Amino acid sequence: MQRTTTPATSLPAPAARHYAGLEALAGQVGQVLGESDWVVVDQARIDAFAQATGDHQWLHTDAERAADGPFGTTVAHGFLTLSLLPTLMARAYAVDGVGLRLNYGLERVRFPAPVRVGSRLRARFVLGAFDRLPDEGAQLRVDATVECEGGTKPVCVAQLLTRLHA
Known about the structure:
Helix content is 23%, strand content 36%. The radius of gyration is 17 Å and the shape is elongated. By secondary structure, it is of the alpha+beta class. The longest helix has 11 residues, at 43-53. It has a domain at 18-41 and 77-165: Hotdog Thioesterase (Thiol Ester Dehydrase, Chain A), CATH 3.10.129.
């Protein structure tokens, strides 16, 4: 299936893959749940993140100074890349019949490579663990890998803990 780049200002694309409830997801441990489409990280998004977080370091927001810096241009904040994971996940897969999805935390996060302004990113999600909860919900550990188009190393790897409830 051909996936396209979704501009930063548009509505999220629909999920690429659907699972028919938690039971269908339970058998997917170790499997790829889905892969998102490409998302462009432009300077407007970087600047908006800087404004929201108060992190205005020149490496992210000053194109002229960053041109002489270690990456030759501005780069996205690592936490901006991390904050894209819920949107990328929603574009990659969905679990039908889930009424509530909670971010329960993170077990591991790394940023092995920078995200230069104008880069296109996508994420692949692998189900690392599926644990039933007493209330008929489930806690998932989803291993996310975010890649930059043309890059040789991932720009973010993270283990996300998510709780799903019907």
